[in-house]
Amino acid sequence: MEEGDRKGAVIEFEDFSFQYFSQAEPTLHGINLKIYAGEKVLVVGPSGSGKSTIGHCLNGLIPFSYHGKTGGSLKICGKETKDMNIFELSKRVGTVLQDADGQFIGLTVGEDIAFALENDRTGQEEMKETVQRVADMVDMGQLLKSSPFELSGGQKQRVAFAGVLVDDVDILLFDEPLANLDPATGKTAIDLIDKVWREYHKTVVIIEHRLEDVLYRDVDRIILVNDGRIVADMTPDEMMAADILGKYGIREPLYVTALKYAGVKVEAAHRAGRLITLDIPAVQDAVLKWHREREEKEAQQERPVILAAEHLNFRYTKKRKILQDISFEIREGEMVSIVGTNGAGKSTLAKVICGFVNEDGGKLLLGGEDMKGRTIKERSKTISYVMQNPNQMICKPMIFDEVALGLRLNGAAEEEITERVEHALKICGLSPFKKWPISALSYGQKKRVTIASMLAMNPKILILDEPTAGQDYHHYTEIMEFLKSLNEAGVTILMITHDMHLMLEYTSHAIVISGGKKIGDASAVEILTNEEIAEQANLKVTSLYELAKLTGIEDAQGFVQKFIDYERRNMRA
Questions:
Q1: Signed CA dihedral, 192, 194, 200, 202: sign only
Q2: What b/e readout covers 159-189, taking b as 16+ CB neighbours within 10 angstroms?
Q3: What pLDDT tens digit does each residue of the chain (573 aa) get?
Q4: Residue 252, SS3?
Q5: Which of 152, 410, 432, 516 has its CA 20 to 30 A from that of 58?
Q6: Residue 67 backbone dihedrals phi, psi, to 5 degrees
Q7: Which of 438, 334, 358 is nearest to 394 (CA)?
Q8: Residues 6 or more apart from 411 whose CB is under 8 A from it?
Q9: Is 0.85 topped by the overall pTM?
Q10: Which residue from 359, 257, 378, 259 is spatially nearest to 314, judged by alpha carbons?
């Protein structure tokens, strides 16, 4: 938004601080920030930086749900929030939560959207008209009688969005709107936010880790938060030129990293905040020169197949086919991405491999032997499965006992259990905490405990569901480098993921599932430079591919592969 378009600050922090009663130190220190009417602002920062706390202060969760001590001033639409009640705040700020399920109240889409209107005692005719109008705004007008819980992730988010739009609030706050969405659905969500911002002139605040995905559409400013303080407040173009995102645990867009590898000193004048605005003529020669510099690649020795599927089929009911004629081969020591749309059958495939459900047709071969008839317990000695949410796996109060559980259930001797548990804890960086209670750990540490409990079983294959979901770049890199070290030690790793960065940078092999069918089985680079497969499977072609095309590189796939090889070499260094 241009300076002349500003209509005055609708959000104004002045020397604002906040300290939760349960914590010894303040979470926010001396926040000074103005957000103007009609702006779209992105708030980024590492986990624990205080960005979510800023969101809680805006929507009234602080102080009405989370109690603590505040200092300084926070005004919304000119009024001090400490002088407002939760009802007044809800009429000014509408929040779309990360977990849309936690926001649903009605039994149908229509009822849920109408909730705020019912509280306001709106008349029936006006209510129906408003609900229909708002539902149409978010392309949900045909599904008003559907249950919110039967919808896809993207549709659920649209319903949550409509539920706050009915109040005609001034400010829309989105708390990690992309966290549970596949890449294409996330792109649609950013499109929808942009449409409402432009057409209805709302002030929009987005809190999100996935910077590149948000910058697919215009953003006025990026607010970078670290350790409870604002460390930068810049336009996207200025932020890319400042070269500070990585320092604070935020992943810069891949195309910006590629420009730097090509020797470009990124400046605000390059307009690198968005790929669509990038000054291509200014960077083209450097990118082409870098691409032409060929590098020798080490020949990879082909390893034996450890896991294979032959014409695999599975269905929950006669009418509901989940997996259809799926065949693939996974070799020893590979790290493989399993990707595709929400509901494509990825998690079901993992359940079939682990024996949680039995295939209806076809074969699963482990080391060339048919697994038909092998129990879950028998398979668990070779194959381990780590769920996305560690809280759904943990069932013991103490760390050591949790990691030892599988071994004890298999009747291992205590001496062997102690040795294997301590080894697993050491690999996972958890040795200092072995006598700690689980409750004292962070979410990321709990995730490591669940991995350690699987490693103690000495698996040959480790399957992980969304291992980096909700992690900032620092914790993402920490988890992935840890998994890479396990992989290099000989563990074959399969990852169900929506994260295209993870897929490109860490996995050489990708299997793509859409509608229960395998539609792609190739290198991650080949998949993410194939526009047809990306469209079918709700993926996005990588911005590296788009940069190659824009700069006139014919071998776009080769350009992306060079970037990945360069990136891996830099990480090793």
A1: positive
A2: bbbbbbbbbebbbbbbbbbbbbbbbbbbbbb
A3: 544 445 689 999 999 999 988 778 889 999 999 999 999 999 999 877 889 899 999 988 888 888 899 999 999 999 999 899 888 888 899 888 766 666 777 789 898 888 888 877 888 888 888 889 888 877 788 889 888 877 776 788 788 888 888 877 889 999 888 876 777 778 888 988 898 899 888 999 999 888 999 999 999 999 999 999 999 999 999 999 998 998 888 889 999 999 999 999 999 999 999 999 999 999 999 999 999 986 666 656 778 999 999 999 998 877 778 899 999 999 999 999 999 877 778 888 999 999 999 999 999 999 999 999 899 988 988 999 988 778 888 999 999 999 999 899 888 999 999 999 998 898 887 888 888 888 877 676 788 899 889 889 889 999 998 887 766 777 777 778 888 888 888 899 999 988 888 888 889 899 999 888 999 999 999 998 988 998 888 888 899 999 999 999 999 999 999 998 888 777 655
A4: coil
A5: 152
A6: -95, 150
A7: 438
A8: none
A9: no
A10: 359
- Sign of the C-alpha dihedral computed for residues 291, 568, 444 and 458 taken in this order: positive
Contact 493, 486 (CB under 8 A): yes
Q: Which residues, 6 or more positions from 427, have their beta carbon under 8 angstroms from its beta carbon?
A: 452, 455, 485, 486
Q: Which two tokens stand for residue 570?
A: 């830099």
Tell me which amino acid residue 338 is. I
Residues 6+ apart with CB under 8 A from 419: none
